[in-house]
Amino acid sequence: MINTVGVIGLGTMGAGIVEVFAKAGLSVIAVDGSAELAERGKGFLEKSLGRAVSKGKLDEAARDEIVGRVSFGDDLAAMKDADLVIEAVPERLEIKESIFTTLDGIVREDCVLATNTSSLSITEIARATKVPSRVIGMHFFNPAPVQPLVEVIRSVMSDETLVEQVRELAERLGKKPVVVGDRAGFVANALLVSYLARSIRAYESGLASRSDIDAAMAAGVGLPMGPLTLCDLVGLDVIHEVCGVLYNATGDPSVASPSILRQLVTAGRLGRKSGHGFYTYDGIGSGTVVDDAATTAPAKPLEGKVGLVGEGDLVDALGSELSDAGVEVVRVVSADDAASVKGVAVTLAVDAVELDGDCCGGGCCGGDDASHGDVESGLEIGAKPVLRAVRDAIGDAGVIAALGEGSVETASTGDPTIDATVVPVVLHEKQRAGQVLEIGRSVAISDEAVETVRSLAVAAGWTPVVGKDRAGLVVDALLYPHLNDAAKMLDSGYATVEDIETAMKAGCGYPQGLFELLDEAGPDDVHGVLAEMYFETGEQHLVPSPLLTEHILADRTFRG
Ligand code: CAA
Fold this sequence. Notes:
It contains 20 helices and 17 strands. The chain has 560 residues and is α/β, with parallel strands linked by helices.
């Protein structure tokens, strides 16, 4: 039975792990490299418990009892009494190996050696010790007191009874253990950090601003945090190291540490813990963001009415939503009504149509089949007589926001002045953190038109996310490769659907698992957008998993 645990390294994760053990009633020996670092670790614990006391979730006597279970120091020799020692030192193999080699000469023979490594090889760490069979991965998630997941990682040398003991210990701590083999990034980080690296690269390439990338995933998908905010929480140095491990293991350039990440780490901008990362904070260790040079100016208030083109339940719902938000709406359901939108600030064209062979009735492109290209679905703005009438009525200056489902293709009218005022938009489902209206921008579209649509979004109570007009815009462009990775991991046999769902929900606070999201979006839609993204970029990681194709052909979802 494990009753006394040692924790080595009292940074963000180590201090959190100390708290988890001490709260569960275990005695904890907490050690860091110097008396000052040990004192800092104690400070982290007291701060975290203090937060619970101030919220009335813990009384002072209970707090003192928890702190009393922990001895803080700077001497590894204190580990001689431990039943299990877990290290949470920086992600460098040589540091971990050296600690484990030292522990060999200190701990009891029956002591389990655990590592909280985020991605390094348990097998390699185990080989540095005299008894590799007692080395197990025990991977917690940030914030450790909050996230229920513990990945229990076995190497091929691990003693299975110890693996089981560690799994049971995780359960005693009130955590959700997932037992897996030793593979770079294990389940959660292999999926999460790949997605974070791509999100950073999307930011670096100017796909969208940092706040729009974060809003896309928080308000657009419902994740607890946007990817750049999460990088700042976890620590950019940690993300950088894990990217390196993933890249070395897979050779996939999309998971290599992005240039901007390397620059920030080199500059000492490590996220919340240094007060600067992708965002600037009001102090070291704070999560409160303050404005800096990269802060996006808020949208200007919308001036004037909004035209709403189209018929059906969705259009009716949008009409009420806009009216409820205090926006004056002019409805257009037939070409005869079109003149009524003259002078409106922006017309939201909800006439998203599935383009079939006759996308324009011969009217917009002279029936020339070649000009249809490979477009299969979306809204072609010149396609419908109503829209053409609206276009004529509002004149060159009026803006049309063309609403599509998932993606929108806007065809050129042949007149650049008119094209500059047609903006593709996608409205996502409402989430806890808001509802995103994605807005595509391109060289053909004027900045003013994009700004007008941003104002419309804010006036309607939606969260605008402006991104380059590429396949998947921002939300799907970040989400779908993440879902594809989950399908690839499942296909590789490393983890089950249940493991993957638990890892992302219990480790990263996802309200839905990746397969739930995949089934909801539909394997065919995910496949289609990935294929478009692959066609646009040629990036290998975007090739849809064969398991997606298999599910589409069998007309099956992943969760049955
Ligand atoms: N330490 C301790 N407790 C904390 C905390 C911290 N750093 N931050 C938040 N909490 C607690 C709060 O006190 C609060 O507790 P109560 O419910 O008891 O009041 C609870 O968490 C919720 O916090 P908030 O209400 O302040 O904020 P929130 O609802 O937005 O949740 C969050 C904050 C838990 C961090 C949430 O945003 C979240 O889950 N984000 C995703 C985090 C994630 O993905 N973690 C995994 C990163 S990867 C990793 O760690 C592995 C690795 O190896 C790199």
